[in-house]
């Protein structure tokens, strides 16, 4: 069991997937958008109209699929499916790119027998290249036969959405609402072009809870602000970032609203799913060797703590020091000081894990060898206490390595 600080309880389903919630199937296949034979086209389908919500990149240049998805969700607040391709972002591709995204939605809708405004589209990959639509059309036509409600279908979908990712990212939890078992699951991709504000990442949440679109949108936005918007790999926000949630309502619970006694429990489950996926993206950062977590306490507000945590986790100097296992706390305090937030220069504490390096803004003698061994681990926690208020926040990222440069120097080739 997992207990959130709201006292909400839910259980992690170790063998669960995005197809665990009632009503959902998924699948994937290789249609030829990638040079490898790894799947590059996938879909999640719901057997009934599912309440839908979405959060999108803040980048001014937004890829064509985002327009299709926004319109589909706005049309009625429901979706029957989301179609995803990797290997090509269909971004900065002009009117032809828009036409291709709409065709993808319409063709897949026809293939599964639903309205075209009930199919969302997402794409990820190289920017500025037109899709190989003959490949996409053939893939769409073959995709319905690959859809199923098993873990196999979920795994095929997760493979289909990857780009430079090294691992698939999926999580599932369940809880009880109104005497009914409710499942919440998620899958995501992301490894590079990751930065707070819908970090390139794609995320998908499925649930069989009964909930309205406005309520689901509220919970998705709140969870995003505390999870996906608190990760960074390289400081780049993509043109294609998207998080879509679908709720089938087949669990049979009473419709969730803020007045429902299970609201806090469901909100905790949504947040947990998003946090697990967000941390998995940070850990899988391009070339990364370790996950870095920055905990900020004692800020003047939570918003201020978030800004400071984001600045520290996004610092190239901090990330490089972690990669080199160098306990250079000066880089951390410098990042805190340039975050543009109120701080008292006389009251800051910094710890690396449980190793004190700074107390009340004064250096603390520590064993460099012990610090070296700690920083060599696969998870590094940086704790900053400002002693300036009650605000707190946590951000996640990764170290900056030689491999990051190698991977991105040859991304298109």
TrEMBL record:
The UniProt record lists the EC number as: 2.3.1.35, 2.3.1.1
Q: Name one GO molecular function term.
A: L-glutamate N-acetyltransferase activity
Question: One short Pfam family name for this protein?
Answer: ArgJ
**Localisation per UniProt entry:** Cytoplasm
Specify whether Magnesium is a keyword of the entry.
Answer: no
Where is it mostly found? cytoplasm
Q: Where is this site: Cleavage?
A: 199-200
| Record: residues binding substrate | 163, 189, 200, 286, 408, 413
**Catalytic activity from the UniProt record:** N(2)-acetyl-L-ornithine + L-glutamate = N-acetyl-L-glutamate + L-ornithine; L-glutamate + acetyl-CoA = N-acetyl-L-glutamate + CoA + H(+)
Its pathway, per UniProt, is: Amino-acid biosynthesis; L-arginine biosynthesis; L-ornithine and N-acetyl-L-glutamate from L-glutamate and N(2)-acetyl-L-ornithine (cyclic): step 1/1; Amino-acid biosynthesis; L-arginine biosynthesis; N(2)-acetyl-L-ornithine from L-glutamate: step 1/4
Q: Set out the biological process GO terms recorded for this chain's protein.
A: L-arginine biosynthetic process; ornithine biosynthetic process
Assembly, in brief, is: Heterotetramer of two alpha and two beta chains.
Q: Which HAMAP family match?
A: ArgJ
As for family, the record states: Belongs to the ArgJ family.
What this protein is reported to do is described as: Catalyzes two activities which are involved in the cyclic version of arginine biosynthesis: the synthesis of N-acetylglutamate from glutamate and acetyl-CoA as the acetyl donor, and of ornithine by transacetylation between N(2)-acetylornithine and glutamate.
This protein's name? Arginine biosynthesis bifunctional protein ArgJ
